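Help needed: design a sequence for this.
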């Protein structure tokens, strides 16, 4: 929806994956942007939060999904999974959710792309497209699982701006974001009408998906973000990497 709202003044909006946005801001190649919350620590010397804006969800988000051949609760330390390389935030969230379910000493193994997996984490367009194809037996929505455990929203990303940005640019961008939020339903409807064909979804389905995303970070979202960092500090979850000896692969016939 931000692209249809159009960038203010002389700004240009660039589409980047969460993984790309952090180094772009750190290196001064971008003035402001949405960054995954897992990248905020790395950027703390270079950026400030740009108002109370970001990406959050309370309940299903439908674009951060774990697709699997078995129920989420049936995973064990002997299972093998593939992880998206696009967002550390989503990977860390998945590790927390598995830890809650099966214990942090029993997290599944991470395997390379060519190996047989019991489940796979996808985000963004890849997750949406696969979800609406409907071919997977089990689909776990990570935001929905977080809300079930903690009864609060999950914050995936925050708008930030470089500390060396001119004050007028900061004010201009903040006003642009505030205007977007005040007219958010309109821009979501515009987006749904234009983007439905990309995902083999109806306009109504795209709009319903967008309605599940919160872009103004309020009190509940701030509490959820703080809890996420506290949980990471408390458990320090990390998926073990699978060795070639234990990786299952398909045999050619």
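Sure. Designed sequence:
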């Amino acid at each position: 929806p931000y692209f249809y709202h159009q960038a203010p003044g002389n700004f240009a909006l660039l589409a980047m994956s969460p993984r790309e946005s952090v180094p772009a801001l750190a290196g001064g190649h971008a003035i402001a942007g949405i960054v995954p919350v897992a990248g905020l620590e790395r950027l703390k010397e270079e950026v400030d939060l740009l108002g109370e804006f970001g990406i959050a969800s309370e309940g299903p988000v439908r674009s951060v999904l774990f697709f699997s051949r078995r129920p989420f609760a049936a995973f064990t330390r002997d299972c093998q999974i593939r992880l998206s390389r696009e967002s550390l935030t989503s990977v860390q969230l998945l590790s927390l959710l598995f830890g809650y379910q099966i214990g942090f000493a029993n997290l599944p193994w991470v395997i390379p792309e060519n190996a047989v997996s019991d489940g796979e984490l996808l985000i963004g367009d890849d997750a949406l497209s696969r979800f609406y194809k409907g071919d997977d037996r089990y689909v776990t929505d990570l935001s929905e699982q977080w809300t079930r455990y903690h009864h609060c929203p999950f914050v995936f990303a925050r708008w930030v701006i470089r500390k060396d940005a001119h004050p007028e640019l900061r004010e201009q961008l903040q006003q642009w974001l505030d205007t977007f939020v005040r007219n958010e339903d309109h821009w979501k409807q515009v987006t749904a009408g234009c983007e439905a064909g990309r995902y083999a979804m109806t306009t109504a389905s795209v709009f319903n998906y967008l309605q599940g995303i919160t872009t103004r970070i309020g009190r509940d979202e701030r509490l959820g973000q703080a809890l996420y960092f506290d949980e990471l500090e408390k458990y320090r979850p990390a998926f073990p990497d699978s060795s070639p000896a234990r990786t299952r692969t398909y045999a050619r016939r």
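DSSP finds nine helices and nine strands in the chain.
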